[in-house]
Amino acid sequence: MNLESPKVTVQKSAQDLFDLLTDVKNFEKLMPDNIAKFEVIGEDAFIFGLKGMPEIKLKMKEKVAPNKIVLGAASDKLPFTLVSNIESVSDASSAVQLQFEGEFNPMMAMMIKGPISKFIETLANNMTKL
Question: Architecture of 2-21+60-129 per CATH?
Fold first, then answer.
């Protein structure tokens, strides 16, 4: 299952945005209002939970400065990645798009497609808060 957020322009250089997104503490600012839990559990990992959803542990898997950051599920039960693609627009702005890729059975995919689409759209739209 592959989902993409809308592309969002942020008033930060690609490198500044990359630096902010590689600090997992900053993901708390991106979370939707219905967040039930957010906990940093290391330099490159955090756990978050949304109301009515199981808690998810994300870990930094790959960093390619200043254009790409890959977060992946720390559990093999729900194998997925969340990729931040950053492109420079000017010295003071950049565009970011989130891509969610996961391996789910059709039933699970049907159940989570709506909430995950809304979630990554919220994350992308909240980039301006960083």
Answer: 2-Layer Sandwich (3.30)
